[in-house]
Amino acid sequence: MNAEAVNPASPGPVPPAATGAVAPAPRRKARPRIDLRRLGRAALLGSATRSRGGLPDAIGHVVEAHRAHHPDADLDPLRRAYVLAESSHRGQMRKSGEPYITHPLAVTLILAELGAETTTLTASLLHDTVEDTEVTLDQVGEQFGAEVRYLVDGVTKLEKVDYGAAAEPETFRKMLLATGNDVRVMSIKLADRLHNMRTLGVMRREKQERIAKVTRDVLIPLAERLGVQALKSELEDLVFAVMHPEEYAHTRDLVQENAARSDDPLTSVADEVRGVLREADIPAEVLIRPRHFVSVHRVSRKRGTLRGADFGRLLVLVQEDADCYAVLGELHTCMTPVVSEFKDFIAVPKFNLYQSLHTAVARAEDGQVVEVLIRTHQMHKVAEAGVVALGNPYAPPSEEQSTGDGERADPTRPGWLSRLLDWQRGAPDPDTFWSTLRADLAQDREITVFRPHGGTLGLPEGATCVDAAYAQYGEDAHATIGARVNGRLATMSTVLRDGDTVQLLMGQDGASEPSREWLEHAHTPAARIAIQRRLAAHPEPAPEAGEAARGAVAPEAQAHPEAPRPAPGTAPTRPASPDVLVDLPGATVRLAGCCTPVPPDEITGFAVRGGVVTVHRAQCAVVARMKGAGRTEVGVRWGESTGCRVTLLAESFGRPHLLADLTEAMALEGAEIVSATVEPPDRQRVRHSYTVVLPDAARLPALMRAMREVAGVYDVSRAQPQPTGA
Q1: Nearest to 255 by CA among 294, 229, 287
Q2: Which of 535-544, 582-591, 595-604, 608-617 has the lowest mean pLDDT?
Q3: Which of 127, 160, 193 is the last residue of a domain?
Q4: Neighbour tally for 75: CB within 10 Å
Q5: Do the beta carbons of residue 482 and residue 489 sit within 8 Å?
Q6: For the segment 214-226, what is each residue's pLDDT rounded down to a tens digit?
Q7: Looking at the 3D structure of the chain, how many domains does it have?
Q8: Is 704 within a domain?
Q9: pLDDT tens, 678-713?
Q10: Are residues 366 and 453 in the same domain?
């Protein structure tokens, strides 16, 4: 029997703002919390007490809430489930003295208000029968079908998980296995915990804190990842009241003081927003959405003294996605927007299916900043109820149930749960699984990064290119050899930011292996577990004699970093420079080393000391500095000679014999290497600098292309100007 259920009438720290239900339609009064005593009396009378339509009075609240979301639902399974649950639990009492049936009724009402479908509600009414009564799973299956049996079995197994040992590595693994990979089992468990938290007041302080701690560490993060915001918010407030009673009382006083004020900035801005949208002929509902207690507490810690606008946000509800952007445009045009507060979670939904536009406007009178959420009615439903609101999980997926990256938004296999089950199967040991999972559950924020050819990746804040590789390619990410972030080469340890574009560079020969140092830069469970498993299965071999270890510079470069041998068949020649005609008689021409111009680059010249004219590429950064310094600009142009001398920078991943292959490719293109510099390897990256002479400047693009085609070379560019100096 559920030992956490206690007297609902007893004093307890239940926040007055906690409702646990999806916000009803505007101008309708919120449905009052379930009257457990009334249900208790109805339950004591048994199933003989009926309302019109043959339904027991006791499930009237559930039926009303269910019909609001599913007007055509078949209610007979609910009637039969209630009759079985009431008769099975008859004689069992809660600690409060109320009939035990009031608990599954309350849990089912929570789920009905969130929009759960009939099968989930049927299983919810029966969720304690197999554990606490003589009803068997086979009987449940015979009367209600395999699907309800499956859900009841999952909830029953969850009840046997020792949540008191939540810090143990095996606890969450058992919880996942108990769900049977059906997220509706978790939804029922969350509603069950919410009702027990609401009625926590008469328990000993020690037990209150134990239950609240497990709720905070395991179930609230779970609700967040399933997108069930209505449950998450109320659970947070209930835990806050138990774990931090003094801070909770202070926050409650702040909320009450603000409610007593006559001048509410949210009300005035809401009226202004309604006027703006009415003039723009955009049908919309504008609501004031008070912050729950934990949210107010967080804002107060961040901003110090709170102003009226800090106690809530405006919620604008419209019909279509396009209307959301129309509302945004009107607000930013007719009011004073705070541009830094804008976020688009419609184009890029959060990992838990959440979609909204976030913006903020400043009030004209006193500059108070009012946050505004803009979403459709369907987005609002999903924002509050998450996966619970997605309907029948076994129905064929529709366009509305697809996410941007092709992953179905499905209650039975949401992306996060699917990955979680993969992690627990792949972890080499429970400690590895638990340590990586705890880090994931602790993440409060997520970033979205883009793929170059379409699609997005959702990653936790602080994720690196290592995490992106395993999020995109899974086990195939072992072959990743580098990355580009926003078009620029980046190390695998580079921390990604929201909105970055990430291109992952993959090895072609399949021989690449993850580096052990990648573990230091992996923040997601998928990456850490995959790397650890791979390293355990394939230990790194010791370097063989005469050959550099994997990731090192070739031996010839280590021995002679300043002068690698030219490829066979070439011989050093004198440096050559193309002809430059200058509009300054008697001047000596010098090509600038900072940008090494070659035909047909656009060029410009500057007179310097000793009758010398330095020639730069027109786009060279030094040009602007020399003009700013008052240097005399001189007209210059290329002559008829086509030879050139140029410095090229090559970036590569270290491997044995790389320099021999690279210099051979350069020689085949007719390049003569004058000098070369190879920097020491840094995290598997090697930078080379080559000054070469070409008999024809027109061959430069072909040379650079040939260098890029050498295995391991990922970029070749002309030498760029340094930050300082001319």
Answers
A1: 294
A2: 535-544
A3: 160
A4: 18
A5: yes
A6: 888 878 888 887 8
A7: 5
A8: yes
A9: 877 666 678 888 888 888 877 888 888 888 888 878
A10: no
CATH of the domain at 482: 3.10.20.30
Task: State the residue for tokens 């792949």.
Answer: 426
Least-confidence region, from 172-181, 198-207, 453-462: 172-181
Spatial CA neighbour of 190 closest among 225, 165, 166:
225
The 3-class secondary structure across 150-216, one letter per residue, is: HHHHHHHHHHCCCHHHCCCHHHHHHHHHHHCCCHHHHHHHHHHHHHHHHCCCCCCHHHHHHHHHHHH
DSSP letters for 543-608: PPTTSPPTTSPPHHHHH-TT-PPPPTT----------EEESSTTPEEEE-TTT---TTS-EEEEEE
Write down the residue that tokens 């947070």 correspond to.
Answer: 236
Which of 109-118, 364-373, 471-480 ranks highest by mean pLDDT? Answer: 109-118
Residue 6 lies in a domain: no
Residue 189, SS3? Answer: helix
The CA distance from 183 to 205, in Å, is: 32
Are residues 105 and 82 part of one domain? Answer: yes
**Cβ contact 187:226 at 8 Å:** yes
Q: Based on the fold, state whether residues 525 and 653 are members of the same structural domain.
A: no
Per-residue pLDDT reduced to its tens digit, 105-131: 999 999 999 999 999 999 999 999 988
Last residue of a domain, one of 351, 372, 388: 388
Mean pLDDT of the 556-571 span: 35
Q: What is the pLDDT of residue 584?
A: 81
Residue 82: which H helix or E strand, with range?
A: helix 76-89
Residue 665 lies in a domain: yes
pLDDT over threshold 60, residue 372: yes
Task: Supply the residues annotated as catalytic.
Answer: 131-132
Here the tokens at position 135 are: 């009803």
Does 717 have pLDDT greater than 60?
A: yes
What CATH number does residue 44 fall under?
Answer: 1.10.3210.10
In one-letter notation, the amino acid at residue 359 is T
What b-and-e string marks burial along 210-225, b requiring 16 or more CB atoms within 10 Å of the CB?
A: bbbbbbbbbbbbbbbb
Are 142 and 285 members of one domain? no
pLDDT for residue 376 is more than 60 = yes
Euclidean distance between CA atoms 543 and 342, whole angstroms: 53
Instruction: Note whether 222 and 438 are within 8 A (CB).
Output: no
Same-domain pairing of 629 and 647: no
311 and 453, same domain (yes or no): no
Sheet order of strands, 685-694 included: 672-678, 685-694, 644-653, 713-718
Give CA–CA dist 508/308, Å, rounded: 60
Q: Which domain holds residue 593?
A: 580-638
Give, as one character, the DSSP assignment of residue 304.
S
Retrieve residue 408's tokens.
């179905």
Same domain, yes or no, for 369 and 482? no
Residue-wise pLDDT tens digits, 164-186: 444 444 555 666 665 656 778 88
Range from 67-81, 217-231, 469-483 that averages highest in pLDDT:
67-81
Are residues 150 and 77 part of one domain?
yes
